[in-house]
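Arabinofuranosidase, pasting as requested.
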Amino acid sequence: MTRRPHTPSRRTLLRAMAALPASALILGEAPGLLGTALAAAPPSGSATRYTIVPFLNSNDGTVNVYQSDDATDFRLAKASAYTPPSNRIRDASILKHTDGSYYITYTTHTWQDTSTTIGFARSTDRVNWTFLYDYTVPIANLSRAWAPEWFVDSDGSVNIIVSCSTTNDEWIFTPYLLRATNSALTAWSSPVALSGIGANHIDTFIVKTGSTYHAFTKNETTKYIEYATASNLAGPYRISRTGDWAGWGSYREGPALVQLDNGGWRLFFDGYGDGTYYYSDSYDGFATWSAPAALPAVSGTARHFTVIKETVSGGPTLARNVTRSFRSANYSTRYWQVQSSLLNLPVVSGTSTTAEKQASTFTVVAGLADANGYSFRDASGRYLRHWDFRARFDANDGTSTFAKDATFIARTGTSSGSVRFESYNYPGYYLRHYSYQLRVQRSDGTDLFRQDSSFVPVTAWA
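Structure tokens follow.
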């Protein structure tokens, strides 16, 4: 069996919240709903696109827009994409609505100030935003309305979960439910406190699987993320996991969940205690979670965001059931080649031997674990797979572990025509050459990593 990839040590305060919460979950066009329809690699010619709209550690008066094709390596789409006409913007939650437009709702004041409104803005392209309105949350003696999170229920209703406190104790927050009463998202039902979660909880994130609502919510006393379930959106919820139940540690906030292409669930959260943004993954119904990892590129810059996932056109196209050779995008004379069962990157040319050319030729087939992904066979019929992070060729033993180890999801590479191959069962890990050996390594968000993990499919050598 394959060894789990090494996880870099985290700074002491944070450990990860990769669970299945989500009042802000926007999966494609159905935020808050978890379903298998989204658990597949994008088809050839399409790409997965994750979008976040965080406020900045250095500035809570504006937000940047970032996008990613793998939920790990987020790249800036537009800096200062939206600045409200007045007040601040914090904790922006993003939704793609049924009208095709994108909406954000957000906290309108900095944490020190009284904040009785939540803001709304709209965009047709995710990067250019127009202010809509500030909405006064109608709760008697309201002191603060923070961290509004979108939640779309299975009946299609659009909801917001917002954390509110009153003037008698401005730092004790309770989650409230607002339901949109028109499709324009300009009118809302009276706020209803979520039963069972109770006071002193903030950043509540809800997601629904089947008939069950799952809530992840920060306990403001312990600073741990707690877990609760209910059969109705408004509750009553039963909190069944408290303290450091999953080993995530304390001083975390702003959880946001998204489903990955392989069916797992990734939770992002703000490690405000140590200035790091983290993610963690679950594959067993939210029972256990991977050790948290720092989110490359945006960690230390981005604050409290949620995520939308979409399938869009323009992804890489790679024909199946054909033979190809694969050239390094940044070392143009070097190609994939099997050497003693291992995949390396030697120089291959017209003067190479017939055996060397044959060893540099591979059949591209549908992914063993996901037909939208890709697997690769050598001339002897063995499959490319990762083992102990090394890329190698082995005979298919028919197990699900082998199928996953031997499946890769195609992502767009750094140069024209190039492709990056992400491990199916270790999202964020890519086939990457290092010292002319092919390994599966976690993306560090650098340009060099992207170049080293980009390969150009070309006419087969043999």
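Note for the archive: The chain has two domains: 45-314, 316-459.
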